[in-house]
Amino acid sequence: MADVLLVYKKNFEGIHDESLQLVKDVLNSQSDSLRVDIRAREQVRRADFIGRDLVIVLGGDGTLTSISHNIDSNTPVMGVNSHPRSDDPNGSLGFYMDSDIDTFSDDLDAALSGTAITNQLPRLQATIETTSGNKIRSDPAMNDLLVANTHQYAPSKYHLRRGDIDIEQHSSGLLFSTWLGQGAWFNQISRKANLGDAGDSETHYLVVARDLDSQIEDETYLAWTNEPTVITSDMHRGYVVPDGWDEYQFNRGATITVDLTGPILQLLTFRNTMKERFRQS
Fold first, then answer.
1. Which of 22, 73, 80, 201 stands the most exposed, by the fewest C-beta atoms within 10 Å?
2. pLDDT digits (tens, 9 = 90+) for 92-107
3. What is the pTM of this model?
């Protein structure tokens, strides 16, 4: 029997409750071949994901990004949009959610039979080394990762090293993004479109110092790179925020290394690859 975990968005809105019931009905119809556990996003824990043959995430992109750090590189995950924008302008875009209620039954069969498209998504990760020598690894980020002053009214001050670059820099913080993640809010920061090269998306990431003129091309402020970015904090207190969720704080003198060495995410799609979905969005 396949061991399946269903994680759903719990907000007591009728549309999501209806979608959850329909997904449960499909899963119950296959109870002879599936063992299913169901958890609300707000109640799920890392241990719930261990040893699963498939993780199903019902909701929108925010539901997926909020729990994706719990999913290891060996576990396939499929996203099911519980409230598609195609049906309601107030619904979710669901960029990472290639399934919906109408297609879920067929998509589940494809996921379990191994005929779905498996997208190997690289993830960003930050390693914080404190002045006392302790090392802290952030959760992996499938979209973007922010390093900034915890006091947003104050500038982020740091020493930056990457390849041949070795400079002191002030900005409103450094924003890192995977190639697919630029479709979230990276484009709004850099005011550019389709940055980087899709062919290098498994090895390269985007980084920009926020609040800069849109015409700036200096790679000390805006880069598409496969080299680690290392910053030494000159801030009384800063933080690392992966995918807009948990915060990891650091103090002056701490060293933060950001690269694309986080565990990959095996995201299943059913009609197009994620790169094709990005180009169509």
1. 73
2. 788 999 999 999 999 9
3. 0.91
